[in-house]
Amino acid sequence: MSFPFSSVAIVGKYMDENALQQMQSDLTRLAHHLLQQGLHVCVEENTAKFIGYDGFVVTDLDRIGEKSDLVIVMGGDGTMLSVGRALRESAAPLVGINRGRLGFLTDLQTDNMLVELDKILAGEYQIESRMLLQSSVMRGESSIYHTVALNDVVIKSAVRLIELEVHVDGKFVSRQRADGLILSTPTGTTAYALSAGGPIMHPDLDAISIVPISPHTLSYRPVSVPAESTIEVTVVSATDAQINFDGQGQYPLLPGDRIRIARAAQKIQLLHPQSYCYFDMLRNKLNWG
């Protein structure tokens, strides 16, 4: 599969003006370079305030996918997560330039980003689809909240153990007391789920990982289920329980609430350099020998 890249969008760490200020010179250099290639360039409205040139189109994040064949995200994994969710209805693939900490989702480095981007624009890339999770909170017979996550959906209490009951496709799995529970995509298995002792799953796998956070019963271990599964988690008892997605949004939960999690209909597409190797990335980011 190939993409005719004639229109390219740029999104910086749009929710953080201090971060945008620090990456201003790189953003400006990137925008100038793309314009010099004869491309139509669109810039997210908050990012555009920090690029010293007006030869591009400015738009809000929700409309960028309509105007672009490729979206370049400069920031960290958090920025990629929020942009990926926002553009999930778009066919435009994403490529990341790392200005964060670990950068599991952002392959390019600023010192060689223009060379690598020119290769991608010339068709030298790998394309990869990443699954999303759709979750809804049921209170009684009403659905009161919906979320979409690229990394994970997390159910936990801020102050003490939470008691949860888990069913998969209507079949009882367990009732557990723990600090919480993580429902993770393969993408999210290198995030919070990894810190909680969950497995690393290759992004090509169609699976959802169910990872307890510090369970009171130590024999309760992470389990992965097919991505076609529907997982239902019931809050049995909790104080200050909440659900959050990708660590970027949250909603309060009450005892009796049921959370249904399943694979979302949409996927996002990531572009990697031709030389990209998932295991090389893991070795470098996790300091494996």
TrEMBL record:
Keywords: ATP-binding, Cytoplasm, Kinase, NAD, NADP, Nucleotide-binding, Transferase. Transmembrane segments: none annotated. The keyword Cytoplasm applies. The active site is at 77 (proton acceptor). NAD(+) binds at residues 77-78, 151-152, 177, 179, 190-195, 248. InterPro entries: ATP-NAD_kinase_N, ATP-NAD_kinase_PpnK-typ_C, NAD/diacylglycerol_kinase_sf, NADK. Its main location: cytoplasm. Its EC number is 2.7.1.23. It comes from the Bacteria. One of its GO terms (molecular function) is NAD+ kinase activity. Its cofactor is a divalent metal cation. It catalyses: NAD(+) + ATP = ADP + NADP(+) + H(+). It is found in: Cytoplasm. Belongs to the NAD kinase family. Involved in the regulation of the intracellular balance of NAD and NADP, and is a key enzyme in the biosynthesis of NADP. Catalyzes specifically the phosphorylation on 2'-hydroxyl of the adenosine moiety of NAD to yield NADP. PANTHER family: NAD KINASE. NCBIfam families: PRK01231.1. This is NAD kinase. The gene is nadK.
